[in-house]
Specification:
By secondary structure, the protein is α/β, with parallel strands linked by helices. It is built from 11 helices and 7 strands. It holds the Pfam family CRAL_TRIO.
């Protein structure tokens, strides 16, 4: 009986996927050859997992899913996301260390760090900053297809001058629209009380599911979500990692993943005891084998 229900569920899903594709072609592709990147349209037609992620995020309502795909594809075209490379983003943005991928939470999700105190609102650099975030997200989508991210807003030593509401809204849209079902959780660490009003506004931009993913915590309590091995000393952690550029951190994504986070063998543990002084030697001690990959990528 259970097998029959499963088969029926899969058939219903496939019908939704095909309906989405047909409607997108008939309602959105007519006379809009320049509206989207042809590579994104091709993926939509050939990658069931991609369509399924959009459908799931819109509770299988096809019309809502189509609006989301339209908005997402227009954004990808506007920002040239398929062609975003390290050379496209201004070098100084990488050098600040305000945004980067490094480490894992206790559930094995990659950590996407935002060092809020390093962000200064400046209309002249807004577009480049948005491309910078898109660069990291697209890079991760290619390297770890289907694997969710945990966003960490490190608000230590930050103030009003570091809060850019438009930029925060953009980041939220990245996970609400552009990369659906990509967000595992959003951890806000050490938020100053004076910013409570700002976060009330930010929460109004989130849907119910996204709000449930918000975790407000202090530096002393963040270990509920992230183990000390991936937290800096000022958060009570033991991670010796210090951002520097170049190269990009975790450039080869060589840390193997298991259900409970990165796998570290006994040999690796012993080798790391004498290698904590530099990030390069620490990361080189990791095995290059990636495990627990999804069967097929949601985007690639």
């Amino acid at each position: 009986m259970a097998e029959v229900e499963t088969q029926e569920g899969e058939q219903d899903l496939q019908k939704k996927i095909e309906e989405t594709r047909l409607k997108f072609k008939s309602e959105f592709l007519q006379d809009s050859t320049d509206k989207y990147d042809s590579r994104d349209v091709e993926r939509l037609q050939n990658n069931d997992a991609l369509v399924e992620w959009y459908l799931t995020w819109r509770v299988y309502v096809v019309d809502d899913t189509l609006k989301m795909i339209d908005e997402s594809f227009q954004w990808r075209k506007e920002f040239d996301v398929n062609d975003l490379t390290e050379s496209v983003v201004p070098k100084w943005m990488f050098e600040t260390g305000a945004v980067y991928l490094h480490g894992y939470d206790k559930e094995g999700n990659k950590l996407f760090w935002f060092k809020v105190r390093l962000h200064v609102k400046d209309a002249k650099t807004t577009l480049d900053k948005k491309k910078y975030v898109a660069f990291w997200l697209e890079r991760y989508a290619k390297k770890e297809p289907g694997m969710p991210l945990t966003v960490v807003f490190d608000m230590s030593d930050s103030g009003f001058g570091n809060i850019d509401m438009d930029f925060v809204k953009y980041i939220i849209n990245c996970f609400k629209v552009y990369y659906p079902k990509f967000l595992s959780k959003m951890i806000i660490v050490d938020m100053p009380w004076m910013m409570n009003a700002a976060w009330k506004i930010i929460k109004s931009w989130l849907g119910p599911e996204a709000i449930s993913k918000l975790k407000f915590t202090s530096k002393s309590e963040v270990q509920m979500y992230i183990g000390p091995e991936y937290l800096p000393p000022y958060m009570g952690g033991t991670d010796p990692f210090k951002y520097s550029y170049p190269p990009l951190p975790d450039d080869d994504f060589q840390t193997p993943i298991s259900d409970n986070g990165p796998i570290v063998s006994e040999d690796e543990t012993e080798s790391k005891e004498g290698e904590l002084e530099s990030r390069e030697t620490l990361e080189s001690s990791f095995s290059s084998e990636i495990v627990a990959k999804p069967k097929k990528g949601w985007w690639w």
